[in-house]
Amino acid sequence: MDKSPDAFRTISEAADELDLPQHVLRFWETRFNQIKPLKRGGGRRYYRPDDVQLLKGIRHLLYDQGFTIKGVQRILKEQGARHVIAIGETGQIQPIAPQPQPDEPGFVEDQDHDAAPVAENGAAATHALPRSEPPRLTEGQRARLKETLAQLMDCKVLLDKARNG
């Protein structure tokens, strides 16, 4: 019998869904304090749906994208668990929204003279929201990005050969 998508999962169910051993989930709890399953008597863990999505996002970043544990910790610290949950739901890393620049709307200087984005109503924004228009890149920046992407794809081919060969 399949559980509802909103049902809590035991560690064995979560591990099966993620195709990971249970000890990996317990280890990740020690490295990512955002993973907080509900614990019942005897230490039995129950993962909420968001916990499972967070685990999926962490798994995707570590195993599919090649991030280190420290790299994923940095993403969680800088962008929050919701960002990693979204990665778990979509399997895609969304780019960080660019911050307003001094000559753009939404830019203000705070009392420390550091740039701080503000919402349209003038209140300080708590975090950057995705922008509707793509960032403006120069042709040189585009060329460098394409060259870097080609190099990364070459590295991926070599890594795949090493893993499978």
Can you offer a commentary on this structure?
The protein is mainly α. The protein folds into 3 domains: 9-90, Multidrug-efflux Transporter Regulator, Chain: A, Domain 2, CATH 1.10.1660; 99-134, no CATH class; 137-165. Helix content is 49%, strand content 8%. The protein has 6 helices and 5 strands. It has helices spanning 11-18, 22-31, 49-64, 69-79, 81-90, 139-164; strands spanning 9-10, 38-39, 45-47, 107-109, 115-117. A 3-stranded antiparallel sheet has the order 1-3-2. Strands 4-5 form a two-stranded antiparallel ribbon. β2 (38-39) and β3 (45-47) form a beta hairpin. α3 (49-64) crosses α5 (81-90) and α4 (69-79) packs across α5 (81-90). The longest helix is centred in the C-terminal third of the chain and has 26 residues, at 139-164. The chain is elongated. The chain starts with 8 loop residues before the first strand and ends with a helix.
Question: What is the top-level CATH class of the largest domain?
Answer: Mainly Alpha
The overall average pLDDT, rounded, is: 77
The main sheet comes to: 3 strands, antiparallel
* Strand element count: 5
Number of domains: 3
Order of helices and strands: EHHEEHHHEEH
**Biggest β-sheet: strands ordered side by side in the sheet:** 1-3-2
Pairing-aware structural class of the strands and helices? mainly alpha
Estimate the global geometry from the Cα principal axes.
Answer: elongated
